[in-house]
Amino acid sequence: MSGINEDLLKERSKCTFNVEELTHFLDGGKENTLKRKRQEQAIISNKDELLGSIPDEFLSHKEKYESSVKKAVALFTLLRKIDNRDLADLADYKNLLGSVLGTSISQDGSPFGVHYIMFIPVFMSQADDEQKEKWLKRALYCQIIGSYAQTELGHGTFIRGLETTATYDPDTQEFVLHSPTLSSYKWWPGGLGQTANYCIVIAQLYTKGECHGIHPFIVQVRDEETHMPLPGIKVGEVGPKMGLNSVNNGFIGFENVRIPRKHMMMKHAKVLEDGTYIKSKNNKLIYGAMVFVRVVIVFESVTYLAKATIVATRYSAVRKQSQLKAGQPECQIIDYVTQQEKIFTAIAGCYAMKFNSLMLWDTFHVINQQLHQGNFERLGELHALACCLKAISTSDSARFTERCRLACGGHGYMHSSNLPLTYALTSASCTYEGDNTVLLLQTARFLVKIWRQIDTVNITPTISYLKTVSAPGFIYKWENTVEGIIRGFQIVSMKKISSCVDIMTNKVMSGMSQEDAWNTTSIQLVSSGEAHCRAIVLSTFHEGVLKASRTMSPPLAKVMQQLVELYSVYWALEKLGDLLEHTSISKSDVEYLWSWFERSLSNIRPNAVGLVDSFDIDDVFLQSTLGAYDGRVYERLMAEALKSPLNAEPVNQSFHKYLKPFMQAKL
Fold first, then answer.
1. Residue 103 pLDDT
2. Cross-strand bridge partners of residue 250
């Protein structure tokens, strides 16, 4: 297999901008690109050891786990050699996570994922200095492997309802962890099945007969030498899933398991030797780790969607199907406007979420520093922002990934395309670390609170538009511009929030309880949370591109602006019902939007392959027969099919054992 498909070569020759320039921008600078490539090259040079000879889909569940552990150990051994900085700083840790997520060899997750994405960040945000000194370095260098146990069989998003208890015994200065019911067993922690030997456990804290709510505890699960579960601990794996089968999700139950007092995370809240409880300055600080994880998930969604768009775009340039005009050769399917609508909107969505992920990280970093200084003013804003961006980025990633899979026809159904597994991963992210519906309701709760105090409360940056578009004398007329679309979405958001508040107020005035008023209005509340997030995503993408354009070459700046236009018009048409209900958009405006949308697709057409090439994901990490850089789709599909164990022999034993007797039996 040699050479690059001619159609892909032609596509790359049409590109109007410098692909390398865009790659450097996405990486945050040329130096970061070079560093990433050095790291990737070290992995690529060991790809035979990291990938194995048999594709994962041909392995049993047990074999897949064992293979994933082998690969994870090999991969993280390499990463440890490549990047051995002091990673206790969150800024450096973000870079490590980028490499962990970006250079993942396993298509189906890693048993070390939760160790890096949750276990270690909890130490960073919840452990006091003494605890960090004892545990953090060991965790960073994988001398211990950790997990994070919060969700239970009977409780997920409603963490205040968790049943696992940690009762303090002052006589021995220990906490007694206990699972009082089957539904209190922790369920889903990644790596906990057979991999992790330590775990952060979220439990209801009891001391002096009083419950103080949920708190995090460090618990040793297995012996460090033998790896056998410790007394009183029942631990195992949850079994096969739709995806993420290499993650080794587990369950754990406790039967009066005793841990030392200093195994409670004590950076914020404390329990003294006599059992006295010292509460945190702000009880919401315990949720900091969850906010951080949601930030990571937004980054993760961008990576997944980038892979899907690369596969679908390159395949669409190679695949030929039917004739646009009689007598002409079959054309590339990327020339069909219906195909462009599926793929190009996904590309624009990926770039939009990239800009928003960077904004979310910067916001998290600023507010996190404020929290450490005792300033909690923007904590609610951060929580609401992380909730809605996690919900929208994951749902959009799943939506667009599935569209990319469908755009690849039957071949997109093949495991070897890597689209089914990518969709399974994006779909899973819509429910883990907060169900998206519940997260949008949490955003709506924040918005309702702000709206009721809009004239008196300090308005923080991401909600400042609410005051602008609701100010007395503010006049808005629909404009067919990106700025006009963004303002329209801001008005939709404001009016939906205002409407929800009015509806709930009227219900309470008529005698309904606050709780019932909230529940019966919850569909509208979810819609208001999404509308708020759509306004943020659009404005962040637009403003981010405007700012970046100042340092970009004119050709690249033009293409980025075209992506913003495509994304904005796409969502205006998708949310046309909301715009018709809440803004002054007219029938002629809608007709203009459709023609603008068609022009936007046409504008992106010459640069589609260049835009996905700029993600610069090597074939070793993409692992797709349809999306490889050389475009040799059919050769790769056949080569991958021949790896099937069923093709190792011309006649399978089942023929002689079952088929032949059945076929030759006399009726």
1. 45
2. 237
As a whole number of angstroms, the distance between CA 40 and CA 134 comes to 32
Q: Please tell me what DSSP assigns to residue 29.
A: S
pTM, to two decimals: 0.92
The amino acid present at 465, given as its one-letter code, is Y
pLDDT of 94 higher than 60: no
pLDDT digits (tens, 9 = 90+) for 393-431: 999 999 999 999 999 999 999 999 999 999 999 999 999
State CA 414 to chain mean position distance. 23
Q: Kindly list the distances between the CA atom of residue 398 and the CA atoms of 309, 401, 413, 570, 601, in Å, as whole numbers in the listed order.
A: 12, 5, 15, 17, 21
Whole-angstrom distance, CA of residue 419 vs CA of residue 417: 5
Q: Which residues contact residue 396 at a Cβ distance below 8 angstroms, ignoring those fewer than 6 apart? A: 301, 305, 349, 353
* Token pair listed for 249: 């999700």
DSSP letters spanning 570-605: HHHHHTHHHHHHHS---HHHHHHHHHHHHHHHHHHG
Surface-to-core class of residue 647, CB atoms within 10 Å of its CB (0-12 exposed, 13-18 middle, 19+ buried): exposed
- Side chain identity at 642, as an amino acid letter? L
Give the separation between CA 425 and CA 243, rounded to whole angstroms. 6
Catalytic residues, by residue number, are 433
Cα–Cα distance measured from residue 108 to residue 119, given in angstroms and rounded to the nearest whole number: 20
Q: Which two tokens stand for residue 549?
A: 């354009």
224, 213, 231, 220: which is closest to 263 by C-alpha? 220
Full strand arrangement of the beta sheet holding 233-237:
186-187, 250-254, 233-237
CB distance 491 to 582 below 8 Å: yes
In this predicted structure, the answer to whether residue 350 has a pLDDT above a threshold of 50 is yes
Q: What domains sit in the chain, N to C, each tagged with a CATH number?
A: 144-284 (2.40.110.10)
